[in-house]
Amino acid sequence: AVIGVVGLGYVGLPLAVEKAKAGYQVIGFDIQQSKVDLINQGINYIGDVVDADLKQMVEEGKIVATSEYSFIDDVDAVTICVPTPLDIYQQPDTSYVEYSTQKIAEQLHPGMLVVLESTTYPGTTEEVVKPILENSGLTCGEDFFLAYSPERVDPGNKKYNTKNTPKVVGGVTKNCTKVAATMYRAVLEGGVVEVSSPAIAEMEKIFENTFRNINIALANEMAILCNRMGLNVWEVIDAAKSKPYGFMAFYPGPGLGGHCIPIDPFYLTWKAREYNYHTRLIEVAGEINNSMPEFVVEKIGIILNEEQKPIKGSTIHLLGVAYKKDISDYRESPVIDIVKILKKRGANVICSDPHIQSWTDGKEEYETVPATKEKLEHADIVVITTDHSTFDYDVIAKHAKVIFDTRNALQDKKIEHKYYRL
Ligand code: SAJ
């Protein structure tokens, strides 16, 4: 069978590789010709989630990429893995989903399976995708099959990947669910969980990520309160972890990054308004998570005060730009906000990140620098913002004069100089 994957990013590319490895002929579609060209050269531009098999799959002709959507005519099943960002009004922007669906509708043929994988508000599959496809004159559930199946890609996770993570599938009709479940069972090994509708599958994905968002906000609120009470929040959490049931540890951090956890809950907030419901808990959690960069800068100021130094003119060395450890992605990274606030306060900011050579905040380009002994000794304060495994924490503990650790990365190290934690 021939399978199409529309959208070759963090979600689409690993899925395309798994489908090709399972023996399907895969055609990858993307509007960006640059991505199409890189894939056809076997070059993997998403290091965090795609293994080396991409090159082999391309060499064996199992994966072909194109920007020509007319080739959808050749596929039996197509998964839509395009972005569903929030626009500047915090409203879901489903234009990529609509465009891709329109291109599929133009080539829709009897027997075809369409699956939406992009994280989105409950109702998208039935209210946005289904009508566009039925404009082709074909009937959903009879002439073609339509389902929603959320992606669960955890960048940097060495244990769980696209292949071995359970997959939830919800079809518009029972046979839509069956057809989609059959396709995924042939490709993945983590098991398929069938649910009664696309909306259930859309809602459970948002619930998963909102659960993380809110629990991280709780950990962040505990950090803020523990700071005022002079308590070590990391010790509090570790003690709470001794409860073998009914507790799940989340940790405070410099803020909430990535393109999912900070964003997904607000699809629900937007949709809930249609039902006259105000998702208060989600909004308060968002406020707390978004306040962390300011909190980190405030604490940097307090620490420098102890050294009789103002933020203005001090050299502040941030270790880590990526939004979480051991990946190179800095989308929505809280470090971007921290740098912006520190520069506004007149600090001299330098950043190190073994996974990132240069980065941009949308206005300026920044080069990262290696965290050398000299740099660490020279800084007025060294702030650990991302706990990458490849930082040399012995060198940091030995040579940085003042350390502010927002990730508890040095928890078991002997520190030579002054050490503060979130
Ligand atoms: N974070 C904390 N404290 C914690 C956990 C995370 O501050 O205790 C921060 C991280 O540093 C990061 C942000 O939250 O900045 C998000 O981290 P994450 O690992 O939850 O998010 P993603 O976007 O890398 O991946 C998540 C997946 N991760 C996990 O489940 C561990 C999963 O929720 C989804 O499959 C994926 O988003 C998605 O695409 O929805």
Structural summary, described in words:
- The protein is an alpha/beta fold and 422 residues long.
- It is built from 14 helices and 15 strands.
- The strands form 3 sheets. It has an 8-stranded mixed sheet, sandwiched between helices. A 5-stranded parallel sheet has the order 10-9-13-14-15. A two-stranded antiparallel sheet has the order 11-12.
- Strand 7 (167-171), helix 6 (174-187) and strand 8 (192-195) form a beta-alpha-beta unit.
- Helix 4 runs parallel beside helix 5 (124-134) and helix 7 (198-229) packs across helix 10.
- It starts with a strand and ends with a strand.
- The mean pLDDT is 95.
- The structure holds ligand SAJ.
- Residues 119, 151-155, 209, 212, 216, 219, 250-251, 253, 256-258, 260-261, 323-324 line the site of ligand SAJ.
Mean residue pLDDT: 95
Order of helices and strands: EHEHHEEHEHEEHEHHHHHEHEEEHEHEE
Low-confidence stretches: none
Instruction: Say how many strands there are.
Output: 15
Radius of gyration: 23 Å
Question: Which key terms come to mind for this protein?
Answer:
422 residues; alpha/beta; elongated
Tell me the layout of helices and strands:
Layout: E1 2-6, H1 12-21, E2 25-29, H2 33-40, H3 53-59, E3 63-66, E4 77-80, H4 95-107, E5 113-116, H5 124-134, E6 145-148, E7 167-171, H6 174-187, E8 192-195, H7 198-229, H8 233-240, H9 265-274, H10 280-290, H11 292-306, E9 315-319, H12 334-344, E10 348-352, E11 358-360, E12 365-367, H13 373-378, E13 381-384, H14 393-399, E14 402-405, E15 418-421
Parallel strand pairs: 1-2, 1-4, 2-3, 4-5, 5-6, 7-8, 9-10, 9-13, 13-14, 14-15
Antiparallel strand pairs: 6-7, 11-12
Helix pairs in contact: 4-5, 7-10, 11-12
The structure holds ligand SAJ.
Pfam family, one: UDPG_MGDP_dh_C
Domain UDP-glucose/GDP-mannose dehydrogenase C-terminal: 317-412
Family: Belongs to the UDP-glucose/GDP-mannose dehydrogenase family.
